[in-house]
From TrEMBL, chain A:
InterPro entries: Dimeric_a/b-barrel (IPR011008), YCII (IPR005545). Residues 16-114 form the YCII-related domain. It holds the Pfam family YCII. It comes from Microlunatus flavus. Belongs to the YciI family. It comes from the Bacteria. This is Uncharacterized conserved protein. The lineage of its organism: Bacteria, Bacillati, Actinomycetota, Actinomycetes, Propionibacteriales. SUPFAM superfamilies: Dimeric alpha+beta barrel (SSF54909).
From TrEMBL, chain B:
Keywords: Sigma factor, Transcription, Transcription regulation. Coiled coil: none annotated. It holds the Pfam family Sigma70_r4_2. Residues 65-80 have a biased composition (Basic and acidic residues). It comes from Microlunatus flavus. InterPro entries: DUF6596 (IPR046531), RNA_pol_sigma70_r2 (IPR007627), RNA_pol_sigma70_r4_t2 (IPR013249), RNA_pol_sigma_r2 (IPR013325), RNA_pol_sigma_r3/r4-like (IPR013324). This is RNA polymerase sigma-70 factor, ECF subfamily. One of its GO terms (molecular function) is DNA binding. Residues 6-60 form the RNA polymerase sigma-70 region domain.
Length: 116, 420
């Protein structure tokens, strides 16, 4: 079995607001349907709450902190899931069921296990 | 053989390395000890042993365990089955299909799919794949390496998709089979006019697909197109490998059995799709019009124009537009063809210039024709095509030079291609 990250790119909104209740209900259902495969994940606040940090050079170098997400894109990184699947096709099927893919996009990337 | 090993080992790089080691071992031992009775079985067994050795060495170094995958599959499935379309043992056909579908996985970039298929299915060398896809060997090696890495890291499964996934997956597979045939039929570099092995490989794969998925429309359409095109291959080059154009081909050398088979497949696939034609069926129908015609002059050009009009609307491409311009010229005269060419971008392309030259010559503008057709250093042309164009240029310039004060006589250019 392999772990995959499902990186959800969708509308940059506050998902906790009542006007998005229908969509969050879909996310709840996704969580129930694929509970056995999901190993972790989180929804994120909108990108207006994001701060980006860069350090020049090495540890202890100059720190540059800016307001906003890493990239200003039409669809923003709004959350992620960690799932376990036998192969990519299985992971892709799980991603298809995730509401983030329905009017946004989900990047599916294998997790790199370091030093196992 | 590579396909069997990939299946057994589940690891492409390992399988490739093992095949190489086994081949080297064969080269070392066979001359001295003589060839074994079953050379293929020997090679596979040796490659498996080499693979196990390599894995043992890796594990001894403390590398990651390959979780969940059976390392060595001892099952032997080498008994041939009766009536195989490809003449291969059933186990090997299975492996070919798995390899083909894996190469064409939607998560792989389209260029990567064709490159991987040519390398692993058609067993072209990296240099040959690079040549076919017009890139350098280094770049191709890198691309293939990245693709294999992706298959391993993302765990793209090595299998034939389930029935409900087939329709969309078959599209990509048929595309690669068609592209393989085109690479063999109309290569852009090299000394041969047609790479016969690639054409044969593509036909073999198409037959396998039709045999495996008899009710799916795409494989039948592609096989029809391939056969109807392949039927004319024997006449496309003369005994010296020089170009013979369609108007000059000896139609007696065309393979009528392939025409009959291709026509039947096209009819079947059209019945299934209720007469609505996909791009493969449209191209197959054009090929059939050529195959049916008793002569170039008697070809139903009006029908061919109609088919290309459809093709250009459902699957526009420079090649389709160019072919349409040729058909237009045959139906309505060279000026109509030239007008259609003017609408095409990429007029510096060697093939577009070739058609423009032929049409200009027909209107009597031979000096312009020669200039259009003259091969340039960076043109993507095979050696026989280059030589053909150079002959054309010489002939037209000679004719253009005749007549007082450079006056040209309109009319048909002389046929300079060799007769077969």
């Amino acid at each position: 079995m392999t772990q995959y990250a499902l990186l959800i790119h969708s509308r940059d909104v506050d998902w906790s607001l009542p006007e998005h209740a229908a969509e969050t209900a879909e996310y709840d259902r996704f969580g129930r349907d694929h509970g056995a495969d999901i190993r972790g994940g989180a929804a994120l606040h909108p990108t207006s709450t994001a701060t980006t940090v860069r350090v020049t050079g090495a540890r202890g170098g100059d720190v540059v902190t800016t307001d906003g997400p890493y990239a200003e894109t039409k669809e923003a990184l709004m959350g992620f899931y960690l799932v376990e699947a036998a192969d990519l096709d299985t992971a892709l099927k799980i991603a298809q069921d995730c509401p983030g893919a329905w009017d946004g996009a989900i990047e599916v990337r294998p997790v790199l296990h370091m030093g196992d | 053989m590579l396909a069997s090993l990939v299946r057994q080992l589940g690891d492409w790089s390992l399988a490739q390395d093992a095949v190489q080691e086994a081949s080297l071992a064969a080269l070392e031992t066979w001359p001295a000890r003589g060839m074994p009775d079953e050379p293929r079985a020997w090679l596979i067994a040796t490659a498996r042993r080499k693979a196990v050795d390599m894995l043992r060495r890796e594990r001894a170094r403390g590398d990651k365990e390959r979780d969940g995958v059976a390392l060595v599959d001892q099952r032997r499935r080498d008994e041939p089955a009766e009536g195989d379309p490809s003449g291969l043992p059933a186990g090997l056909e299975d492996d070919l299909l798995r390899l083909l579908f894996t190469c064409c996985h939607p998560s792989l970039a389209p260029e990567a799919r064709l490159a991987l298929a040519l390398r692993t299915l058609c067993q072209l060398s990296v240099a040959q794949v690079a040549a076919v896809l017009l890139t350098t060997e280094t770049a191709m090696a890198r691309r293939l390496g990245r693709t294999r890495q992706k298959i391993t890291a993302a765990r793209i499964p090595y299998r034939v998709p389930a029935a409900e996934e087939l329709p969309e997956r078959l599209g990509a597979v048929c595309g690669v089979v068609h592209a393989t045939y085109t690479a063999g039929h109309a290569p852009l570099v090299g000394d041969a006019l047609v790479d016969v092995d690639l054409c044969a490989e593509a036909v073999r794969l198409a037959r396998l697909l039709v045999a495996t998925f008899p009710d799916e429309p795409a494989p039948t359409s592609v096989l029809a197109l391939l056969l109807l095109t392949e039927a004319r291959r024997p006449a496309r080059a003369d005994a010296d490998g020089e170009v013979v154009l369609l108007p000059d081909q000896d139609r007696g050398r065309w393979d009528s059995a392939l025409v009959v088979e291709g026509a039947a497949l096209l009819a079947t696939s059209l019945r299934r799709s209720g007469g609505v034609a996909d791009p493969y069926q449209l191209q197959a129908a054009v090929a059939l019009e050529h195959d049916r015609a008793p002569s170039y002059a008697a070809t139903d050009w009006a029908e061919i124009v109609r088919l290309y009009d459809l093709l250009v609307s459902v699957a526009p491409s420079p090649a389709a537009s160019l072919a349409r311009a040729v058909a237009l010229a045959e139906r309505d005269g060279p000026e109509a063809g030239l007008a259609a060419l003017d609408g095409l971008g990429g007029s510096h392309d060697a093939r577009v210039r070739g058609v423009r030259g032929e049409l200009l010559a027909r209107t009597g503008r031979r000096a312009e024709a020669a200039q259009a057709v003259e091969p340039r250093a960076d043109d993507e042309l095979t050696a026989p095509e280059r030589r053909f164009r150079e002959r054309r240029v010489r002939a037209w310039r000679a004719l253009a030079g005749e007549g007082a004060g450079g006056q040209e006589q309109p009319g048909q250019p002389p046929r300079m291609s060799a007769r077969s």
